[in-house]
Specification:
Two copies of one chain form a homodimer. The first copy, chain A, is of the alpha/beta class and 508 residues long. Helices cover 34% and strands 18% of the residues of chain A. Chain A is globular. β12 of chain A pairs antiparallel with β12 of chain B. Chains A, B: Keywords: Hydrolase, Metal-binding, Protease, Signal.
């Protein structure tokens, strides 16, 4: 940790606290260095327990192992919270003498379903190994023995190594380091490790309702997701809401010979193309009436934070093969601050070798609507539905009857999931400022602060069910292949994550 | 055969010829009635020989059987014409003393690939049986014995029973009936039974080149396809051309998280929707520059013929569940006289249960362009390509390189098959008038005369390679399920087809 001009200016601004935080973090780092082989041993064991979210038997083994990790660290009240049909939550808490406020640390221990065949040769989802770099970028597997020194540039490969067992490891070991270094937490601490995030946190609301008083806190810290593309530490004060709408437009009842009936029988593929095409203009602006009307404007503080986020566009363009982003020169971070409408999928008839000269019977599309603060899922769906209605469509929620087909020229089936709203914590709340100060004390560069991530999590339930504030602190490397093959964590991110959480446990 | 007012007016117009043709047809009918059990026996045997077009071993058995059918009828020069990699053509000819002109009768004996599992219980593609009506409309299988009388309302079920072994049966038995009834053909007669129509007549041009002098004739009569929806006999003077264009629009190189990158990364699904949507206006009119410019206008005679075709739209609307045809009130037959542009298929990402919140990497579409007289496949493709270019697309014929992706914001891959042009024989040619008069003599209602069918066949090759005229005389019932499960022929259509062909063999 070197003192540079930036850190010095922070120290001058916040005074002695920052300097004392600095010395505390050095203790945490020292503890980690002395114990990193034990930490890695436990991490390897944890990643080796299969945890595909629908494999409840194995998921339960993970829960038991993590509960023991808490008990081993003196959290003797660790327990499994249960709800019917749900994978359990691993819970524990620590009352800190003199503390008046409570932070609850969230991570999840279940992983995405995985297809081992897609992994690079030598890598297996539940047989974690160290690699020098991603295999597809020329890395190789390290012949690691438990007594070997660990290079922080190495990566540990395995399903859920990043998403989100890294979160569990950072939280548990930060607490351990704190206690063993004789540093006192400033808040009461609770641990909440979910077991079904990867299947949509189906029972999260049930858990929050059932264990409302046990889960009472001032702040939820969500340890999940990757840090900024630049590699810098990041604090995200919100997530977007999300809802999917499935559209089906109907053509003739049977597939028709395109020569005998084409240009007389309505073509549902063309109808879908024309319906979707009009939803956005050439600048990527959604043309649906009122689409942006209820967006809560960014505060001055939020705007300022955004303006300081380093540009990622040149690197992304190269990486992704994008010459002209949708919306032109608008930075990605500005797009993230707006509600979106995207086509996730579109299908009508067949393409490629299966294509036939027919007028298809239907065309389908799946829309993805991301919501920001101020939007409401039901209102957002209504805006899209009203747009479709204004285009002359008869709207139904099931396949049309013969009578409806005879009556209406343009028929569309619309269905959607429940969806959920966005969540955003104001960056200028005192507790938000405390979080920023604590994490800032661990690094020598300005943190990346974002009012909201681009992605979605149902974090609004914490606010709604418990009245708690929520802030997300991502732990792992950007290129960790979350949800995909060859998932991995760069070890330096694990070490830095422990420091981050330890700093939060001592924040003022 | 009853003489009604219409037929009387035809007789008054054309005089004695019609009355003599009438009496000749009665002889054909009498011969057929006396021999129908033998005809059916042979038909059942022919349909029982599997003939899926890619099953060359079995296709060859069909060819041998049909050659023997010709020999049995005194056409001793019957032979198999060959070309490398091609299923053979069954050929034979009859020189008629005094005849100065030649008609060549075309049918094909190969069938579409078939999935027996899709057929109704009791029906098997290559075990032909009689049914009282389509099984799906409440028909049942008849326990037929070879000596039973045959009800002309019955249908014979089996793959290729309609498409196009019915054509072979009608041609061969018309000639047989003519000779055995001691009626003399007025033209030299040639027989041409193709063995690979169902895989695109891949070697037809090779055969026409190799056997150019053998195949010389004044007129090709194509016996293929279903008669008009009204059940009336039909003469079609042309077919449309056809070409398919496959389009692929590229998005980011990897599928991207729609929350983290949506509305920044270009969405290829939306780009495809916007490209396709603009190709047609709300009236079904293709907006592509010059799309209709080179269409050869219909002659007065053709316009008149079209105006007399009975309306099929009310029945089709009910049958197909169509409330508002594309192009509004324009009759189907008018749409068929125009070049078309249709979307056969469209795909991007996934829909339904497989849908994911991603920005897909590409969007694909398959276009079907039907061509009419005056159009040219290369010109038609160029019109569409120019339209796409004018929308700002960089056009390639392969997946883009990284360099192209960096350089061009809108990239599309366009590929297409060879395609072929339309064919149309003017209805007022003397030989066309002879055909009309001959077939009209077999029925008491006005024939359906159409300048062109909606579908496509590469009939232009006969004109191009041999300088011959081509007229299509469809043989079978409209609801014969050609290319599909439960294919069948209504026996009355077989009997009427024999009369039709016999009338053509004696036309003036």
């Amino acid at each position: 940790m070197k003192f540079n001009a930036y850190l010095l200016s922070v120290a001058l601004l916040f005074g002695a606290n920052v300097l004392s935080a600095q010395s505390n973090i050095q203790k945490i780092t020292a503890f980690r260095k002395a114990n990193e082989q034990d930490i890695i041993k436990e991490y390897l064991k944890l990643v080796a327990i299969p945890d595909e979210t629908n494999d409840s038997a194995n998921v339960l083994l993970n829960a038991g192992y993590i509960k023991e990790m808490l008990v081993k660290r003196g959290i003797s009240n660790a327990e499994l919270l249960t709800s019917p049909s749900a994978n359990p939550v691993v819970y524990g808490d620590v009352k800190v003498p003199g503390a008046t406020k409570t932070i609850i640390f969230y991570a999840h221990y279940d992983g995405q379903p995985v297809n081992p065949k897609q992994w690079s040769p030598g890598l297996k989802p539940f047989e974690p190994v160290f690699i020098t770099a991603p295999i597809e970028q020329g890395g190789h597997i390290i012949d690691y023995k438990p007594s070997d020194a660990i290079d922080p540039a190495w990566r540990l490969s395995g399903r859920a190594s990043a998403d989100d067992k890294a979160g569990v490891m950072c939280i548990v070991n930060a607490y351990d380091a704190l206690v063993k270094s004789k540093l006192k937490p400033t808040y009461n601490i609770k641990f909440f490790f979910e077991g079904e995030e990867e299947r949509g946190s189906t029972h999260l609301a049930d858990f929050l309702a059932k264990y409302k008083s046990k889960l009472a806190s001032d702040l939820w810290i969500i340890c999940d997701g990757p840090r900024h593309v630049s590699g810098k530490k990041m604090v995200s004060f919100g997530v977007r809401g999300d809802i999917n709408m499935a559209l089906t437009i109907y053509g003739p009842k049977r597939p028709l010979h395109s020569g005998n009936y084409g240009n007389w029988a309505p073509n549902p593929g063309l109808m879908m193309a024309q319906l979707l095409a009009g939803m956005k203009d050439d600048n990527g602006h959604v043309t649906i009436k009122g689409f942006y009307d209820d967006v809560t404007p960014l505060s001055a503080r939020e705007k300022e934070a955004i303006s300081k986020i380093p540009a990622v566009e040149p690197a992304l363009k190269k990486d992704l093969g994008v010459a002209e982003p949708e919306g032109g020169v608008r930075p990605l971070i500005e797009a993230i601050m707006l509600p979106t409408l995207n086509i996730n999928g579109m299908a009508s008839g067949n393409v490629g070798a299966l294509a036939a000269n027919v007028i298809p019977t239907k065309a389908e599309a799946m829309l993805d609507l991301r919501l920001v603060l101020g939007n409401d899922v039901e209102r957002q769906v209504k805006k899209v539905t009203d747009y479709i209605k204004a285009k002359g469509y008869y709207i139904t929620d099931k396949d049309p009857t013969d009578e409806e087909r005879t009556k209406y020229g343009k028929i569309i089936k619309i269905s959607h999931d429940a969806g959920y709203n966005a969540q955003r914590t104001p960056m200028d709340l005192p507790i938000a400022q405390s979080v920023i100060t604590a994490i800032q004390s661990t690094v020598a560069y300005p943190l990346i602060l974002t009012p909201s991530s681009g992605g979605s999590l149902p974090l609004f339930v914490f606010e709604k069910a418990l009245g708690a504030k929520v802030i997300t602190i991502p732990m792992v490397n950007y290129d960790s292949n979350q949800h995909a093959e060859n998932e991995n964590v760069k070890i330096s991110y694990l070490w830095e994550g422990i420091e981050t959480i330890a700093a939060l446990m001592q924040m003022k």
